[in-house]
Design a protein that fits this description.
176 residues; Rossmann fold; six-stranded parallel beta sheet; 6 strands; 21% strand; globular
Amino acid sequence: MARTLLVVDVQQGFLNDFTRHIPGRVASIIQEGVHDEVLFTCFVNTPGSPYRRLLGWEACEGPPDTLLAPELEQFAQPELVFRKEGMAGIPDALRERLRDSKTECVDLVGIDTDMCVLKCAMDLFDLGIEPVVLVDACASTAGLQAHLAGLAILGRNIGARQLRLVGRDEGFLAAP
């Protein structure tokens, strides 16, 4: 069975003290070469979005916030990067690509465990695709508590067996 890696929103606008370790971890997973396909999502906060209207949050409307982390640029050909607006989870174009390729399982890594990674994993689950969240290659911009909350919700909704370690934690549960 082909292995697909989905890198969720590991972009410059989401890099902070809680997430700066993620691009390097993701790059090391990609460099292992165990995945047949590596796909990326990129969050864009469009004009009129609920983030702007309801939360007053204006970031991530364009570059540099919407550019992938520099560690990942070399792996991301334009046709492998899928724009998503809001917490849309799996965008339509990505959904079609996964269906057309008859993808059965997707490993997920990225930012934010409690929001975008969670939504993408649950969307994959709803599509009948097995989501596997590589927990030590995920983090939340809001810190460890938000990351753990996301994992708790994911464990309940997609199954605790779908949450796996890949040994990228350097002995730390969160950012050292």
